Amino acid sequence: MEFMIRRAEHSDVEELVELRMALLQEVGGLTNKTEIETVSHANKMYYEKHLKSEEYISFVAESQGKLIATSGLIIINRPPYLHNLLGMDAYIMNVYTIPTYRGNGIATALLDSCIEFAKNNHVGRIILTASADGLPVYEKRGFKRKSSAMELVLNG
């Protein structure tokens, strides 16, 4: 299977939205047409704004002119701490490969692109939330499981 990894561009927004909707449907986050349309529109607006401003970095895998996988990364600037004196963290999200293309090293290649981008931008720590299927990919690259995360949903 031949594929090329590249940074996403504004012209990829529609396909990025499609991949995001596929991911959300697969993990059970969307269940009906109205939800899909609402979240799809919100994601389109997000990608158009944040890809342009580079607040959201996306790498994509392309095969035969079609996007078959994606990953996302945001940089978080926080006060420095002992193990990260620049205070730069990266959060990797939305790693998704179309099911028929899985098992070809695409997610690993996307992850490697995210890690390389983070290194080149002085990031001291990368965080992510992994699905059960994604754990081996991340562990292979040295990510460690942590259980300290908590959340408070304010709008949902």
UniProtKB/TrEMBL annotation:
Keywords, in A-Z order: Acyltransferase, Transferase
Provide the species name. Answer: Paenibacillus soyae
Q: Name one GO molecular function term.
A: acyltransferase activity, transferring groups other than amino-acyl groups
- Mind telling me which Pfam families this protein's record contains? Acetyltransf_1 (PF00583)
Full protein name:
GNAT family N-acetyltransferase
InterPro entries assigned: Acyl_CoA_acyltransferase, Bact_Acetyltransf, GNAT_dom
Please report the stretch or stretches of sequence annotated as the N-acetyltransferase domain.
3-156
Superkingdom classification of source: Bacteria
